Protein backbone atom coordinates (compact mmCIF):
# COMPACT_ATOMS: atom_id res chain seq x y z
CA UNK A 1 0.00 0.00 0.00
CA UNK A 2 1.41 3.35 -0.98
CA UNK A 3 0.17 6.91 -1.07
CA UNK A 4 -0.52 6.25 -4.78
CA UNK A 5 -3.92 4.82 -3.82
CA UNK A 6 -5.05 8.19 -2.53
CA UNK A 7 -6.98 10.61 -4.73
CA UNK A 8 -6.69 14.20 -3.56
CA UNK A 9 -9.70 16.42 -4.13
CA UNK A 10 -10.96 19.81 -3.03
CA UNK A 11 -14.61 20.62 -2.34
CA UNK A 12 -16.49 23.52 -3.99
CA UNK A 13 -17.36 24.86 -0.54
CA UNK A 14 -14.44 27.35 -0.52
CA UNK A 15 -15.88 28.93 -3.69
CA UNK A 16 -19.64 28.49 -3.09
CA UNK A 17 -21.46 27.13 -0.08
CA UNK A 18 -24.70 25.15 -0.30
CA UNK A 19 -25.49 26.15 3.29
CA UNK A 20 -25.49 29.86 2.28
CA UNK A 21 -26.08 29.87 -1.50
CA UNK A 22 -25.76 33.66 -1.82
CA UNK A 23 -22.09 33.74 -0.84
CA UNK A 24 -19.70 33.30 -3.75
CA UNK A 25 -22.69 33.23 -6.12
CA UNK A 26 -20.58 34.86 -8.85
CA UNK A 27 -18.12 31.94 -8.89
CA UNK A 28 -19.07 29.82 -11.91
CA UNK A 29 -18.48 26.11 -12.50
CA UNK A 30 -15.74 26.88 -15.05
CA UNK A 31 -14.00 29.16 -12.58
CA UNK A 32 -14.13 26.51 -9.83
CA UNK A 33 -12.96 23.62 -12.02
CA UNK A 34 -10.17 25.61 -13.58
CA UNK A 35 -8.95 26.73 -10.14
CA UNK A 36 -8.93 23.07 -9.07
CA UNK A 37 -6.67 22.23 -12.01
CA UNK A 38 -4.36 25.17 -11.25
CA UNK A 39 -4.07 24.03 -7.64
CA UNK A 40 -3.18 20.48 -8.72
CA UNK A 41 -6.13 18.44 -7.41
CA UNK A 42 -7.67 15.42 -9.16
CA UNK A 43 -11.29 16.17 -8.53
CA UNK A 44 -14.07 17.55 -6.41
CA UNK A 45 -17.51 16.89 -4.94
CA UNK A 46 -20.77 18.01 -6.52
CA UNK A 47 -22.10 21.37 -5.33
CA UNK A 48 -25.75 22.41 -5.33
CA UNK A 49 -25.14 24.77 -8.27
CA UNK A 50 -23.69 22.08 -10.54
CA UNK A 51 -25.43 21.48 -13.93
CA UNK A 52 -26.90 18.31 -15.48
CA UNK A 53 -24.65 15.24 -15.65
CA UNK A 54 -23.98 15.68 -19.40
CA UNK A 55 -22.76 19.26 -19.06
CA UNK A 56 -20.74 18.45 -15.95
CA UNK A 57 -19.05 15.44 -17.60
CA UNK A 58 -17.92 17.55 -20.54
CA UNK A 59 -16.46 20.21 -18.26
CA UNK A 60 -14.68 17.50 -16.23
CA UNK A 61 -13.29 15.70 -19.28
CA UNK A 62 -11.88 18.94 -20.68
CA UNK A 63 -9.86 19.33 -17.49
CA UNK A 64 -9.24 15.62 -16.68
CA UNK A 65 -11.04 15.98 -13.36
CA UNK A 66 -13.22 13.46 -11.52
CA UNK A 67 -16.12 13.56 -9.07
CA UNK A 68 -15.68 11.96 -5.65
CA UNK A 69 -19.26 12.25 -4.42
CA UNK A 70 -22.04 14.53 -3.20
CA UNK A 71 -23.81 15.44 0.01
CA UNK A 72 -27.37 14.15 0.63
CA UNK A 73 -29.46 15.52 3.51
CA UNK A 74 -31.65 12.69 4.81
CA UNK A 75 -34.77 13.08 6.95
CA UNK A 76 -35.27 9.41 7.82
CA UNK A 77 -36.51 10.19 11.33
CA UNK A 78 -38.86 13.00 10.28
CA UNK A 79 -40.18 11.56 6.99
CA UNK A 80 -39.46 7.81 6.99
CA UNK A 81 -37.59 5.67 4.47
CA UNK A 82 -40.34 5.57 1.83
CA UNK A 83 -40.34 9.35 1.45
CA UNK A 84 -36.56 9.62 1.40
CA UNK A 85 -36.05 6.86 -1.18
CA UNK A 86 -37.09 8.63 -4.43
CA UNK A 87 -34.84 11.63 -3.69
CA UNK A 88 -32.00 9.34 -2.71
CA UNK A 89 -32.36 7.24 -5.88
CA UNK A 90 -32.43 10.35 -8.07
CA UNK A 91 -29.18 11.58 -6.55
CA UNK A 92 -27.58 8.12 -6.85
CA UNK A 93 -28.52 8.06 -10.54
CA UNK A 94 -26.83 11.42 -11.12
CA UNK A 95 -23.75 10.32 -9.20
CA UNK A 96 -23.55 7.06 -11.16
CA UNK A 97 -23.73 9.06 -14.38
CA UNK A 98 -20.79 11.27 -13.35
CA UNK A 99 -18.86 8.17 -12.13
CA UNK A 100 -18.67 9.18 -8.49
CA UNK A 101 -17.48 6.82 -5.75
CA UNK A 102 -19.63 7.80 -2.77
CA UNK A 103 -22.87 9.41 -1.68
CA UNK A 104 -22.31 11.44 1.50
CA UNK A 105 -25.28 11.26 3.85
CA UNK A 106 -26.15 13.31 6.91
CA UNK A 107 -29.37 12.97 8.91
CA UNK A 108 -30.83 16.45 9.19
CA UNK A 109 -33.88 15.75 11.37
CA UNK A 110 -33.77 18.34 14.22
CA UNK A 111 -30.46 19.66 12.85
CA UNK A 112 -29.44 23.18 13.89
CA UNK A 113 -26.76 23.29 11.17
CA UNK A 114 -28.72 25.87 9.15
CA UNK A 115 -30.48 27.64 12.03
CA UNK A 116 -29.65 30.74 14.01
CA UNK A 117 -28.92 28.72 17.19
CA UNK A 118 -25.86 28.13 19.34
CA UNK A 119 -24.30 25.17 17.51
CA UNK A 120 -22.20 24.26 20.58
CA UNK A 121 -25.02 24.11 23.11
CA UNK A 122 -28.16 23.36 21.15
CA UNK A 123 -27.42 20.25 19.13
CA UNK A 124 -30.20 17.65 18.98
CA UNK A 125 -30.14 14.20 20.64
CA UNK A 126 -32.04 11.23 19.23
CA UNK A 127 -34.04 8.91 21.48
CA UNK A 128 -33.73 5.09 21.26
CA UNK A 129 -36.61 4.76 18.83
CA UNK A 130 -35.17 7.46 16.58
CA UNK A 131 -31.76 5.76 16.57
CA UNK A 132 -33.45 2.55 15.41
CA UNK A 133 -35.25 4.34 12.58
CA UNK A 134 -32.05 6.06 11.51
CA UNK A 135 -29.85 2.96 11.58
CA UNK A 136 -32.47 0.75 9.90
CA UNK A 137 -33.03 3.36 7.18
CA UNK A 138 -29.31 3.79 6.55
CA UNK A 139 -28.89 0.04 6.13
CA UNK A 140 -31.53 0.10 3.39
CA UNK A 141 -30.13 3.22 1.72
CA UNK A 142 -26.65 1.67 1.77
CA UNK A 143 -27.96 -1.30 -0.26
CA UNK A 144 -29.69 1.07 -2.69
CA UNK A 145 -26.47 3.06 -3.17
CA UNK A 146 -24.68 -0.16 -4.13
CA UNK A 147 -27.18 -0.70 -6.98
CA UNK A 148 -25.66 2.45 -8.50
CA UNK A 149 -22.06 1.42 -7.84
CA UNK A 150 -21.75 3.84 -4.91
CA UNK A 151 -20.78 3.52 -1.27
CA UNK A 152 -22.97 5.27 1.30
CA UNK A 153 -20.69 7.19 3.68
CA UNK A 154 -22.14 8.82 6.77
CA UNK A 155 -20.98 12.39 7.55
CA UNK A 156 -20.88 13.17 11.31
CA UNK A 157 -21.59 16.91 11.57
CA UNK A 158 -21.75 19.77 14.09
CA UNK A 159 -25.28 20.68 15.12
CA UNK A 160 -26.76 17.28 14.23
CA UNK A 161 -27.74 14.13 16.14
CA UNK A 162 -24.57 12.37 14.96
CA UNK A 163 -21.83 14.75 15.99
CA UNK A 164 -19.76 13.40 18.89
CA UNK A 165 -17.44 10.39 19.12
CA UNK A 166 -20.06 8.67 21.28
CA UNK A 167 -22.77 9.25 18.68
CA UNK A 168 -20.52 8.08 15.84
CA UNK A 169 -19.84 4.92 17.86
CA UNK A 170 -23.56 4.33 18.32
CA UNK A 171 -24.20 4.82 14.62
CA UNK A 172 -21.42 2.43 13.64
CA UNK A 173 -22.59 -0.17 16.16
CA UNK A 174 -26.20 0.08 15.00
CA UNK A 175 -25.58 -0.19 11.26
CA UNK A 176 -24.39 -2.95 8.97
CA UNK A 177 -20.68 -2.61 8.15
CA UNK A 178 -21.32 -4.17 4.75
CA UNK A 179 -23.59 -1.31 3.64
CA UNK A 180 -22.98 1.74 5.84
CA UNK A 181 -19.54 3.35 5.85
CA UNK A 182 -18.06 6.35 7.59
CA UNK A 183 -16.89 9.69 6.25
CA UNK A 184 -14.19 10.93 8.62
CA UNK A 185 -14.14 14.74 8.78
CA UNK A 186 -11.23 16.08 10.86
CA UNK A 187 -12.74 19.55 11.29
CA UNK A 188 -16.13 18.45 12.58
CA UNK A 189 -14.80 15.98 15.12
CA UNK A 190 -12.11 18.43 16.29
CA UNK A 191 -14.63 21.22 16.87
CA UNK A 192 -17.03 18.80 18.55
CA UNK A 193 -14.71 16.75 20.76
CA UNK A 194 -11.43 18.69 20.87
CA UNK A 195 -9.38 15.98 19.18
CA UNK A 196 -9.52 13.98 16.00
CA UNK A 197 -7.48 10.77 16.22
CA UNK A 198 -9.57 8.46 18.42
CA UNK A 199 -12.55 8.32 16.04
CA UNK A 200 -10.18 7.50 13.19
CA UNK A 201 -8.40 4.79 15.19
CA UNK A 202 -11.65 3.28 16.41
CA UNK A 203 -13.49 3.21 13.09
CA UNK A 204 -10.74 2.94 10.48
CA UNK A 205 -12.29 -0.28 9.16
CA UNK A 206 -15.47 1.62 8.27
CA UNK A 207 -13.84 4.76 6.83
CA UNK A 208 -14.40 4.99 3.06
CA UNK A 209 -14.18 8.74 2.53
CA UNK A 210 -12.24 11.55 4.19
CA UNK A 211 -12.63 15.32 4.53
CA UNK A 212 -9.51 17.18 5.64
CA UNK A 213 -10.80 20.38 7.24
CA UNK A 214 -8.67 22.54 9.54
CA UNK A 215 -9.75 24.91 12.33
CA UNK A 216 -8.48 28.23 13.68
CA UNK A 217 -8.20 27.73 17.42
CA UNK A 218 -8.74 31.32 18.53
CA UNK A 219 -11.78 31.79 16.27
CA UNK A 220 -13.16 28.48 17.51
CA UNK A 221 -12.88 29.46 21.16
CA UNK A 222 -14.43 32.88 20.45
CA UNK A 223 -17.32 31.23 18.60
CA UNK A 224 -17.84 28.74 21.43
CA UNK A 225 -17.75 31.47 24.07
CA UNK A 226 -20.19 33.64 22.14
CA UNK A 227 -22.51 30.72 21.37
CA UNK A 228 -22.52 31.34 17.63
CA UNK A 229 -24.54 29.50 15.01
CA UNK A 230 -22.79 27.12 12.59
CA UNK A 231 -23.20 29.65 9.78
CA UNK A 232 -21.72 32.49 11.84
CA UNK A 233 -18.85 30.22 12.88
CA UNK A 234 -17.71 29.47 9.38
CA UNK A 235 -18.34 33.00 8.14
CA UNK A 236 -16.09 34.20 11.00
CA UNK A 237 -13.33 31.88 9.78
CA UNK A 238 -13.60 28.97 12.22
CA UNK A 239 -12.58 26.57 9.44
CA UNK A 240 -9.67 26.78 7.06
CA UNK A 241 -7.57 24.56 4.82
CA UNK A 242 -4.89 22.17 6.14
CA UNK A 243 -1.69 24.06 6.72
CA UNK A 244 -3.46 27.20 7.92
CA UNK A 245 -5.01 26.05 11.20
CA UNK A 246 -4.19 24.13 14.36
CA UNK A 247 -4.63 20.51 13.24
CA UNK A 248 -1.53 18.44 12.51
CA UNK A 249 -2.71 16.26 9.63
CA UNK A 250 0.42 14.11 9.45
CA UNK A 251 -0.75 11.80 12.23
CA UNK A 252 -4.11 11.21 10.55
CA UNK A 253 -2.59 10.88 7.09
CA UNK A 254 0.17 8.48 8.21
CA UNK A 255 -2.39 6.38 10.06
CA UNK A 256 -4.69 6.21 7.02
CA UNK A 257 -1.79 5.07 4.84
CA UNK A 258 -0.48 2.59 7.40
CA UNK A 259 -3.95 1.05 7.71
CA UNK A 260 -4.26 0.63 3.93
CA UNK A 261 -6.87 3.34 3.33
CA UNK A 262 -7.40 3.93 -0.34
CA UNK A 263 -9.83 6.40 -1.85
CA UNK A 264 -10.45 10.11 -1.76
CA UNK A 265 -9.14 12.65 0.70
CA UNK A 266 -11.04 15.85 -0.03
CA UNK A 267 -9.85 19.21 1.26
CA UNK A 268 -12.90 21.00 2.56
CA UNK A 269 -12.84 24.41 4.17
CA UNK A 270 -15.87 26.63 4.19
CA UNK A 271 -14.94 30.29 4.48
CA UNK A 272 -16.35 33.46 2.99
CA UNK A 273 -14.79 33.53 -0.53
CA UNK A 274 -14.82 37.34 -0.45
CA UNK A 275 -12.50 37.19 2.56
CA UNK A 276 -10.48 34.03 1.86
CA UNK A 277 -9.50 33.90 -1.83
CA UNK A 278 -10.47 30.33 -2.86
CA UNK A 279 -7.52 29.70 -5.20
CA UNK A 280 -5.04 31.15 -2.74
CA UNK A 281 -6.32 28.77 -0.03
CA UNK A 282 -6.41 25.81 -2.42
CA UNK A 283 -2.73 26.48 -3.14
CA UNK A 284 -1.93 26.69 0.58
CA UNK A 285 -3.53 23.26 1.04
CA UNK A 286 -1.70 21.79 -1.93
CA UNK A 287 1.65 23.06 -0.67
CA UNK A 288 0.95 21.62 2.78
CA UNK A 289 0.05 18.22 1.29
CA UNK A 290 3.17 18.13 -0.86
CA UNK A 291 5.61 19.46 1.71
CA UNK A 292 4.25 18.16 5.02
CA UNK A 293 2.28 15.01 4.19
CA UNK A 294 3.69 13.43 1.04
CA UNK A 295 7.32 14.36 1.64
CA UNK A 296 7.36 13.18 5.22
CA UNK A 297 5.49 9.97 4.24
CA UNK A 298 8.16 9.31 1.61
CA UNK A 299 10.80 9.55 4.33
CA UNK A 300 9.07 6.77 6.24
CA UNK A 301 9.00 4.33 3.30
O1 LIG B 1 -19.07 17.99 4.14
C1 LIG B 1 -19.62 19.05 4.41
C2 LIG B 1 -20.72 19.58 3.53
C3 LIG B 1 -21.33 20.90 3.97
O2 LIG B 1 -22.58 21.14 3.40
C4 LIG B 1 -21.24 21.04 5.44
O3 LIG B 1 -21.99 22.06 5.99
C5 LIG B 1 -19.78 21.11 5.79
O4 LIG B 1 -19.53 21.56 7.08
C6 LIG B 1 -19.19 19.77 5.56
O5 LIG B 1 -18.33 19.30 6.30
CO1 LIG C 1 -17.22 17.56 5.53
From TrEMBL:
Transmembrane segments: none
Coiled coil: none
Pathway: Polyol metabolism; myo-inositol degradation into acetyl-CoA; acetyl-CoA from myo-inositol: step 2/7
Catalytic activity from the UniProt record: scyllo-inosose = 3D-3,5/4-trihydroxycyclohexane-1,2-dione + H2O
Example GO molecular function: myo-inosose-2 dehydratase activity
Boundaries of every Xylose isomerase-like TIM barrel domain copy: 84-278
Keyword Ligase assigned: no
Cofactors required: Co(2+); Mn(2+); glutathione
Top-level taxon of origin: Bacteria
Top enzyme category: lyase
Enzyme Commission (EC) number: 4.2.1.44
Record keywords: Cobalt, Lyase, Manganese
Family: Belongs to the IolE/MocC family.
Record-given protein name: Inosose dehydratase
Gene source species: Paenibacillus wenxiniae
Amino acid sequence: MTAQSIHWGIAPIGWRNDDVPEIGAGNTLSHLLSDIVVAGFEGTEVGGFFPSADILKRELQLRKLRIAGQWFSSYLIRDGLEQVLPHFRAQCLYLQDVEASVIVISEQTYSVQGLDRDVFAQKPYFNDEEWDVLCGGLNELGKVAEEYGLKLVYHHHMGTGVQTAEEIERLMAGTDAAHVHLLYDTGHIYVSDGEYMSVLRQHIDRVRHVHFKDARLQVLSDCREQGRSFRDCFLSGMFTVPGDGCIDFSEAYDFLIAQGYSGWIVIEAEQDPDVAHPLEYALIARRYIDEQLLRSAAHHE
